[in-house]
């Protein structure tokens, strides 16, 4: 999950819709298999999931299948569950989905699988994914570890650090936090101040980091575990005039995060590879439908983007706003 979890830019009517659907008509149609496949995003319009959709579309052309894409306006199981229920009622052959909650989304996805759909979990997962045909995600624990290493490189003498995340109960961000916590606790030169939850709201993240800096003005590093957390943390650090002291490591590489990196407010980004997640997720779904070998779980890794590689290798890992 994206984390990674930017709300779609929707009209007021769409934002308040019960289903909050954003249906995409640009799934590729061909005279191929005739499989009915749906991709349910974590958030419609989020660059992470747009990039994943681009990978799915590209692979769909090669495989000769049609993929319909929908997603909720927010990373919220109460908005995603009605979409899953509606898609399941249409009896798809396969569903690719980024579940928005480890517990709340398990039952509706289990029901879809029991009804015959091949369910492939992309990016996020649930707390008992035994019903899933395959799982494809980033190495989120490794990403959290890399975030600590980036802070350590920038602060070799140690100091106080904390995590700014979204909400508990999201598999990807929980894993990133776990990786960061394990790494920081193993280094006695650093003091871990714990996790703050910003509820996917940049303004809340900015307020939380401002309060944290008022309490502990000597904080040297913050790991912002998703898109909104990075955006809000960077804003709060800048408003506090602490950008020369506090090193912010963000997760994901959407346009806003890249802008923060270019401005020097964020010192590094841990970029996922959602394009590859999309490709491999669709590959496993089609393999399952054809009775071919399925590989699971698959981890796609991550890439560290800094000012030093921003214009070279790092640029190719920036997320897309459209295909």
From TrEMBL:
Entry-linked SUPFAM superfamilies: Periplasmic binding protein-like I (SSF53822)
Signal peptide extent: 1-22
Organism: Tsukamurella soli
Subcellular location: Cell envelope
Residue ranges of the TM segments: none
Protein name as annotated: ABC transporter substrate-binding protein
Major subcellular site: other
Keywords annotated in UniProt: Signal
């Amino acid at each position: 999950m994206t984390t990674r979890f930017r709300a779609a830019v929707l009209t007021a009517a769409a934002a308040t819709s019960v289903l909050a659907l954003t249906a995409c008509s640009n799934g590729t149609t061909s005279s191929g298999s005739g499989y009915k496949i749906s991709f349910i995003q974590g958030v419609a319009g989020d660059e992470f999931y747009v990039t994943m959709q681009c990978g799915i579309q590209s692979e769909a052309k090669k495989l000769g299948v049609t993929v319909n894409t929908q997603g909720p306006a927010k990373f919220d199981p109460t908005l995603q569950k009605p979409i899953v229920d509606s898609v399941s009622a249409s009896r798809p052959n396969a569903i690719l989905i980024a579940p928005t909650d480890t517990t709340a989304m398990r039952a509706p996805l289990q029901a879809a699988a029991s009804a015959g759909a091949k369910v492939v979990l992309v990016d996020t997962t649930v707390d008992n994914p035994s019903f899933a045909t395959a799982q494809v995600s980033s190495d989120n624990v490794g990403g959290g570890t890399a975030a600590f290493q980036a802070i350590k490189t920038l602060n070799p003498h140690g100091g106080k650090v904390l995590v700014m995340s979204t909400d508990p109960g999201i598999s990807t961000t929980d894993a990133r936090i776990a990786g960061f916590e394990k790494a920081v606790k193993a280094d006695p030169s650093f003091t871990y101040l714990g996790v703050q939850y910003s509820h996917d709201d940049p303004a809340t993240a900015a307020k939380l980091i401002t309060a944290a800096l008022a309490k502990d003005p000597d904080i040297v590093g913050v790991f912002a575990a998703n898109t909104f957390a990075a955006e809000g943390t960077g804003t709060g650090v800048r408003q506090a005039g602490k950008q020369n002291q506090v090193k912010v490591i963000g997760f994901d590489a959407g346009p806003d995060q890249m802008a923060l990196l270019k401005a020097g407010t964020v010192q590094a980004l841990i970029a996922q590879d959602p394009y590859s997640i999309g490709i491999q997720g669709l590959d496993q779904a089609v393999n399952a439908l054809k009775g071919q070998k399925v590989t699971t779980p698959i981890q796609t890794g991550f890439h560290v983007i800094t000012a030093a590689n921003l214009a070279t290798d790092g640029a190719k890992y920036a997320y897309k706003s459209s295909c």
